Amino acid sequence: MARTRRRFNYSAVIGTIPMILVAVGVFVIGIAFTFFWSFTSSKLFPAYDFVGLRQYYRLWASDRWLVSVSNIWIYGLLTIGGNMVFGFLLAVFMDQKIHAEDLLRSIFLYPFAMSLIVTGLVWQWALDPNLGLQSAMHHWGWASFKFAPLVDVNTAIYGLVVAGIWQGSGVSMAIMLAGLRGIDSEIWKAAKVDGIPPWRTYLFIALPMMRGALATAFVLQCVSVVRVYDLIIAMTGGGPGISTNMPAVYVIDMITSSQNVGQGMAAATMMLVPIILLLSIVGIVGWRRRVRAEAGA
Amino acid sequence: MASVSIRKLGVSFGSLSVLRDLDLEVAEGEFVVLLGPSGCGKSTLLNAVAGLLDIDDGQVWIGGKNVTWEEPKDRGIGMVFQSYALYPRMTAEGNLTFGLRVAGVAKDEIAKRVARTAELLQIEPLLKRRPAELSGGQRQRVAIGRALVREAGVFLFDEPLSNLDAKLRTELRVELKKLHMTLGSTMIYVTHDQIEALTLADRVAVMHRGVIQQLASPKEIYQRPVNRFVAGFVGSPAMNFVSGELVANSDPVLRTADGTEIRLAGYPFNERPQSGRKVDLGVRPEQIHFDSTAPGATALPLALTLVEPMGADSLLWGSIGDQSVSLRIGPDETHKIGEKVNVHFQPAAASIFDAETGERL
Amino acid sequence: MSTVVSSADTRRAGAGPREDARAQAAGPKPARLSPGRVGIYAFLIVSALFFLIPLYIMVVTSLKGMPEIRLGHLFNLPSEVTFKPWSDAWLHACTGRDCFGLSPGFMNSVKITIPSVILSILIGSINGYALSFWRYKGANLLFGILLFGAFVPYQVVIYPLIIGFRIMGIYSTLTCIIIVHTIFGMPILTLLYRNFYAGLPIELFKAARVDGAGFWKTFFYVMVPMSVPITIVAVIIQVTGIWNDFLFGIIFSGRPNWPMTVQLNNIVNTTTGVREYNVNMAATILTAAVPLAIYFISGRWFVRGIAAGAVKG
């Protein structure tokens, strides 16, 4: 008598076949294959011999990979830090009932609308050692001005950071401004009545209250840093030498021109590690907050 | 017109059982209101009748046909929702006809039905408008119209008036009642508003925690609630409860904690009262009077504490020990606060509930 | 999410320095420019210059002749405006042996973008709809995998995709790149539409069920007409995203179908001989023109797209 009815709608399954294919076929099976091939000696074409961790040993012995990893740390810390701080400052200043807010917002955000290839090429030109910013300053009489990072092995990565901040800080600003404006207006009134100076209100009251916006901006930045590829190709091509290589460039190079798929797959698997760590942290924090909320309720 | 029969219905969401073993028979042409606080399962029950959710157990019969496994469209129902749920990008007419068009009803038949419904609900001038161009009341009329054009045997209403302001709610309530008289269709109506329930229903089903507590005429529900929940939920201002212990002499008496004795002579006990039983005496505020002449009236000693003017009348508050009691008085009556008075009620019209089970004695 | 952004102006009645200034001012007219105010505008204007200078040098460089550029006056306005770099960039600039400028790349980008946008939005909206109203067993798991996919570095799945497309025999074709864009647009679009549909009253869906509309009829007759605003956001996200793509274009589209970004990079970075900076900059502007136009026309919708894409749940 206890018959359970589960309405199983075939149309819904048929309608989401593309989703099923992509979720399973690309993001599960695809990643599994990448993982699998990282344990093989695949060259131009996939091989199916098991070579253990050899690709990983080789990877971590490769100068190019080590430079790539150190670059992503430098680039990541500086652009993420820069974008978060600069974005927050812009958001706070934009929040002062200023004139032409829409115009300024458009200006801060337009780089984000453009391709990273465009960003890279523009900054490559602006930082050109002979005809760019540096020479313009010299012509204006500032003969000692030196800013041509892209031609020097030691500084090229900082050129990328400048472009990264130029491209990405507007987005942080937009997200944080939305976060700021999502704060209950009575908080501001209360802080004013209590006589708390505005900078303190922003730093100690508003900032902790916009955790969601901060987390969002942060995660977004992290993902784009790990993926960064176009910018490097357009701006430095990974050079001078190997000085601006990054993991994303390394992987693509391995599976295309270097014809060393096994190596590329090992590097790709390594790229997945920080993302999984980041997602786990976000997941655990969210889970703990939910548990605490339930315990409090 | 069709009857509705719900048999041993069980619904759960995950591990949470919302309805269990629920039976309800609605006769042809009857207007049944499901009344209860939010979360009592009344909307779940209505959705189960409509076929809008998966049930775990039991059967639903409409018009003598087992429709437990039928799609909503095949059950012969029309439904009106709280948020109106009008399709925003269609005109009122489009909303009315969508279901018929989906079902492939002939064009002239659709036109005929729309004309009839629009006339009945007086929405002819609104037919070409979009929902955004209609007021709340007009939207709900169109929503009712959308249910009516289906010419179904049963109409289901899910809190249809609770998004409207008080005045419109009263107006539409009256219209719904007229509509029911005109059409004579079976209607099942969910609400948490007891006024709607009492005014509209042939029978009211008071629900609490997934169980129908009492299914009876509005009068019965109001006058002879079967348990403390129904007694407390129905009626505004709420019923007074005085708790104490039964003393079963030849004339049973209620003794409160502070020693006050209230005579209960004339109360129709279902079973012989036993001394020492803890009970709650329930008396509605309008059943308590200063006047002691009514037949069988019994005295209630009260220390007056507060007057709440409510317009048409006032509510006078007093206490017996630490228990509050209210009664309705005329708007112009004056009483001295702090004074000790005797007020009177007829035990025959009151209710007595077991303090533990809450059941009527 | 979008409401946060759009409610931006309806907020508090003045916090911050301006209020302070008003409190100190004695007369009815508030002191308009306190030092704090000047500082705020100074910061914002300097920041705006930082963002605008690259655009400025792009434009002025593209309008100069090469002799003038070689003088090294990066910021000077062109002494003699020339549009030749623009026509060169469009029609004659060379990538390798071909010298047809960017126009073939532009056409390729159009051919890639339009079908990709339509297909990805259609699929994303059906996914979001199914996930909101027709959640079958396992649907949430699929959605979880898809969300995970939004964070995965593309490099992790590119090679398996190449192999897969090779087996299917469509690698390096227009179809291939369109499918790739549809795949990688799916996580964000599904999330976008799911959040949108989940915000609709469930009663609307129930009403359609009572009216007898099933999965497809409810979708096309009830949901699609309501989805105009979210679809504008989706179109903005997808058109700019796909137009700006470089990585997928160079790997999956095949040489004859290379999109504008790939051709731009080739023109600028792989030319042998003399570098024509003016042509390069004109080409760069041309490539950026479509997304920039969308950005400036759509205005707040674009911001909403960022917020929508960024905020989960």
Number of separate helices of chain B: 8
What structural class results from the helix and strand content of chain B? alpha+beta
Give start-end ranges of low-pLDDT stretches of chain A: 1-6
The span between the termini of chain B is 39 Å
Mean pLDDT of chain B: 89
Shape of chain B: elongated
How many DSSP-defined strands of chain B? 19
Spans of at least 5 consecutive residues with low confidence of chain B:
none
CATH level-four homologous superfamily name of the largest domain in chain B: P-loop containing nucleotide triphosphate hydrolases
Main structural class of chain A: mainly alpha
Supply the number of helical segments of chain A.
14
Task: Provide an overview of this structure.
The complex is a heterotrimer of chains A (297), B (361) and C (313). Chain A has 14 helices and no strands. Chain A is an all-alpha fold and 297 residues long. The radius of gyration of chain A is 24 Å and the shape is globular. Mean pLDDT of chain A is 85; it is low at 1-6. Chain B folds into two domains: 4-233, Rossmann fold, CATH 3.40.50.300; 240-354, Beta Barrel (OB fold (Dihydrolipoamide Acetyltransferase, E2P)). Chain B contains eight helices and 19 strands. In chain B, the strands form four sheets. Chain B has a six-stranded mixed β-sheet, with helices on both faces. Chain C folds into two domains: 17-82, no CATH class; 103-310, MetI-like (MetI-like fold, Orthogonal Bundle), CATH 1.10.3720. Chain C is mainly α. Chain C is globular, with a radius of gyration of 25 Å. In chain C, 50% of the residues are buried. Chains in contact: A-B, A-C, B-C. Chains B and C meet through strand 6 and helix 2 of B and helix 10 and helix 11 of C.
